[in-house]
Specification:
This is DUF255 domain-containing protein. Keywords: Cytochrome c-type biogenesis, Membrane, Signal, Transmembrane, Transmembrane helix. It is a multi-pass membrane protein. Its main location: membrane. This protein has about 650 residues and is α+β, with helices and mostly antiparallel strands. It contains 15 helices and 25 strands. The strands form six sheets. It has a six-stranded antiparallel beta sheet. Strands 16-17-14-13-20 form a five-stranded mixed beta sheet. A hairpin with a 2-residue loop joins strand 8 and strand 9. The longest helix has about 30 residues. The radius of gyration is 28 Å and the shape is globular.
Length: about 650
């Protein structure tokens, strides 16, 4: 069956064609999955006895190629250099990989753009070099397609200068894992814990600066396959315990005492180390578990979400829900607020279930991405307008009785189901917002397995529901509210206007989705934004410029707050319009695999997201969700330093 699939993929592979070369580069070989070429760091070799080359891949969104150890499936690029002249001993270096999950399989490789550095010996220094690379690689998305390319590059013998690609090659050389010293990383110990089918590898690493989202890759593949690791952080994030279970049935010999190579990757930082695991004791992990720490972060993020701008669309639901309890009995208050809290938590668990399913299908996952779907926007607009009409007294829901007044809190004769659905509806409208700690928690969850996703989303729901739970715990708080009366008719009309305004806002987002209006990148702005182009970032940095990247969407309320309060006003706007800064805007209003992959490269799965690049920060520095002028200006200054 696998052979038939491979044959079908091969037959389906598009015919490659070459695109014009630039000095120091071969022609591009272009396919539907992307393009590849050969680069040299020098325009000519002079008397050098070695040459720095690079295999430059630019992949279409959604497509990936493989690392030297590909994981559960696939194979790495294979190169035949035998057709080269005056060249020998080429050695390929492998930048730190990323982990991908496709159809439940763990794979290691690269998406977007990557250069594989190649260092080769010049047999006769002072003589021309002809480089021939017969390349065979596998590109995968929903299907895998074997690709071939015939790359040729001639380098003269005269004196030369660094080519236009020297910086790009050097940037990826810097991403090749070393001993970790320049990143302040080191492996303290490697242990084999357990026996038989339950054995797992435990690595303890230390860092001068706190870890963010460390990952671990284990070689050789012939020894065993490993599940995605679980990470425990302690000592303020400066110590990481990374544990990976052996996939059942794949262990070929005892793990303890087996020579290994472990690669630890944490964003742009990485290290590679040879290790021989020693027997370890189960349960001897130092510090509290990472999941427990992240649950607390998620709980705090959910609480803060109550204070974010996204509370405005649901303010009418919350306020009227509270006012309707004025003068009510303690038991009624407690039951009603518990029902609303349950609606919030259950809706977060439903979002977690969707995220798990989407991730298992190999699709991009993220916070609030349901607002990229026109059908979802249409349903939300219809519900908002129906609820607003109800608040204005244009109709009342009568049947069925069990569902009477099952909408927001402005409907009379509330049922527990109505309060439950009000909580769920509030959750859906809150998801366009991000908040401090929320992005960290969501990124942690979506980079891991189903159990972590459900746990983190449940904690987020508890945090958002905490005000309801507080009133349910102390129902006497509701007795301090005014008793319902005729004055609530006016309040309902005002709240109906708020819901209608929210519906109109979603209507503008829907217009973008169906092509009736421009997206976020086309708005008139105080900053001269240019469209996001990840390949242009390195070129701008090589020219000594600073690049500010803003990932935004029309449905992202926090993005609009950042724009109005920080990025498009005052000193920040003036700096972004300066000649030494390139301001890039990536519009995620509609689904975009390239933007999703870019976010994932920073361990992020939601927006707003901002990053700053420059000579002082060539790999980019991610900023916080809620921007401040001081933070942005400091990042721009730091990135601009050489």
């Amino acid at each position: 069956m696998k052979k038939l699939l491979a044959l079908a993929a091969l037959l389906a592979a598009p015919l490659a064609h070459a695109a014009a070369a630039e000095p120091g580069a071969s022609d591009w070989t272009v396919t539907d999955t992307g393009r590849v070429r050969l680069l040299a760091a020098q325009t000519a070799l002079g008397t050098k006895d070695s040459v720095q080359l690079g295999l430059h891949f630019q992949l279409q969104p959604g497509w990936k190629i493989y690392w030297r150890t590909p994981g559960d499936a696939g194979y790495p690029p294979k190169i035949d250099w035998s057709g080269s002249a005056n060249l020998s001993d080429p050695v390929v270096s492998w930048p730190a990989p990323k982990r991908f999950t496709l159809a439940g399989l763990q794979n290691h490789g690269y998406a977007g753009e990557v250069i594989l550095p190649v260092l080769a010996r010049v047999e006769k220094p002072g003589q021309p070099v002809s480089v021939s690379a017969q390349l065979d690689y596998l590109a995968c998305a929903q299907i895998c397609v074997p690709m071939q390319a015939d790359l040729r590059l001639d380098l003269p013998a005269g004196s030369g200068q660094p080519s236009a690609f020297a910086h790009d090659i050097g940037r990826f050389v810097a991403l090749v894992p070393g001993d970790g010293a320049r990143h302040g990383l080191k492996v303290e110990r490697v242990e084999a814990v357990g026996e038989g089918e339950g054995v797992h590898l435990r690595l303890t690493a230390a860092a001068d600066d706190p870890f963010d989202h460390p990952d671990m890759f284990v070689e050789p593949a012939e020894l065993a396959s490993f599940e995605a690791p679980v990470v425990t952080l302690s000592q303020g994030g400066r110590r990481a315990v990374i544990e990976a279970e052996v996939v059942k049935g794949t262990l070929q010999r005892p793990l303890a005492g087996a020579p290994l190579v472990v690669t630890v990757v944490d964003g742009p930082r990485s290290l590679e180390a040879a290790a021989v695991p020693v027997p370890g004791v189960a349960g001897s992990v130092e510090g509290g578990p990472a999941l427990l720490s992240m649950l607390l972060v998620a709980l705090l993020g959910g609480v803060i979400l109550n204070l974010m701008p996204c509370v405005l669309p649901v303010l009418s639901i919350k306020v009227l829900g509270a006012l309707s309890h004025g003068g009510a009995g303690r038991g009624h208050v407690r039951a009603s607020f518990l029902a609303s809290a349950a609606g919030i938590v259950v809706s977060f668990l439903a979002l977690a279930a969707v995220a798990v399913a989407v991730k298992a299908a190999g699709q991009a996952v993220g916070w609030g991405i349901q607002f990229q779907q026109p059908w979802f926007l249409g349903v939300m607009i219809a519900l908002l307008l129906a609820f607003a009409a109800n608040l204005w007294g244009l109709y009342e829901i009568r049947l069925p009785t069990a569902l009477m007044n099952a909408g927001p809190s402005g409907v009379a004769h509330h049922t527990l189901l109505g309060h439950f659905l009000s909580g769920a509806f509030a959750t859906l409208l809150a998801t366009p917002c991000s908040a401090p700690f929320l992005g960290t928690a969501v990124g942690f969850a979506l980079a891991r397995g189903p159990s972590e996703i459900f746990a983190i989303f449940a904690a987020l729901g508890l945090g958002l529901a905490l005000p309801y739970l507080a009133v349910a715990t102390w129902p006497g708080l509701a007795s301090r509210l005014p008793k319902p009366g005729a004055w609530m008719v006016t309040v309902k009309k005002v709240m109906g206007v708020a819901l209608t305004a929210t519906a109109l806002w979603l209507g503008t987002v829907l217009a973008v989705q169906v092509g009736m209006a421009g997206g976020a990148a086309s708005d008139k702005a105080a900053v001269a934004w240019v469209p996001f182009d990840q390949t242009a970032i390195s070129r701008a940095v090589a020219e000594g410029k600073v690049v500010f990247v803003d990932v935004t969407a029309d449905w992202c309320i926090t993005c609009k707050v950042n724009k109005a309060a920080v990025t498009e006003r005052g000193a920040v706007a003036a700096r972004l319009n300066g000649g030494d800064v390139v301001a890039m805007k990536a519009d995620w209003t509609k689904p975009d695999d390239g933007v999703a992959a870019y976010l994932a490269s920073f361990g992020r799965y939601g927006i707003p997201f901002n990053a700053v690049y420059g000579p002082g920060a060539p790999d980019g520095v991610a900023l916080s969700e809620l921007l401040t002028e001081a933070e942005v200006m400091a990042a721009l200054d730091k990135a601009g330093k050489r």
